[in-house]
Target: Formamidopyrimidine-DNA glycosylase
Amino acid sequence: MPESPEVQALADELGARLRGRAITEVDVVEFRTIKTRARPPSGLVGEHVTDVARHGKLLDLAVGASQHLVVSLGRHGWARWREADADGGPGVGAAVDQATAGTVPAEASAEPPPPTLVAMAFDDGNTLEFTDAGSWVSLGCWVVDDPVEVPAVAKLGPDPGDPGFSREDLDRVVVGRRKQLKAVLQDQESLAGIGNAYSDEILHEARLSPVVHASALTEAERERLFEATVGVISSAIEARHGVPIDRLKEVKVAAMRVHGRAGEPCPRCGDTIRDFAFGSTTAQYSPTCQTGGVLLSEASDRSPSRAE
Model:
């Protein structure tokens, strides 16, 4: 699932490419992606893109005087940029699949490119395609006058990628909250932009268990959590800046210290990184760094809170 650092990099690149460009055509291949049926994206034809921004994990193309195309990339959505060929027709740009790019060399992969669900052509002949690699449609598009008209945007919590994010913002989310910490970090109404991968990285950096209840954290642990949350997200946003969007997945995977690293040594303590499944998600963690050496699969209801 795309998370805030990668979506920010996507927004930055598309902003540089699209500001001032006129939309010449919109092709909706999958009608279920359009959430504002009375205002389809085809109504944007002839308008110019004025800016591209991010709201949590959602992309926002500002169009014309006051319209916005808000795109939820969902679980497996991403973008594919196709350059115009020498004759000005649509080019065969590199596939930009957030779900699969970088996992194996393109020439060795038997996987077909993800299907295009929505395509937008511009006055320079280039095309922006939104894709979805999942078995069900998770990509969603809204045409609105204000991004907060999109429920997912209106409900977003504070964003750790925002320079104004404060310790008070974090405390309002965790203090008194009887919910497992990893779930809190991934709850978009609590904190915007964090998903499965970066929640693992944050908890490892903060030396906290994914299953401890937020309400059980001490003052010192909340401070560690704040520093880790801001540090991991802001550093990732900075590191992804300027990375071509077709390489973002590859770069993200390479940067992970614990997420997706089960069976490998922890880069801090050398212990073996473990997998733990709970609810509808999984976590990777270091027992020595995060749970006092206790394996979560053995912890049952004890839910160790932290490494001492």
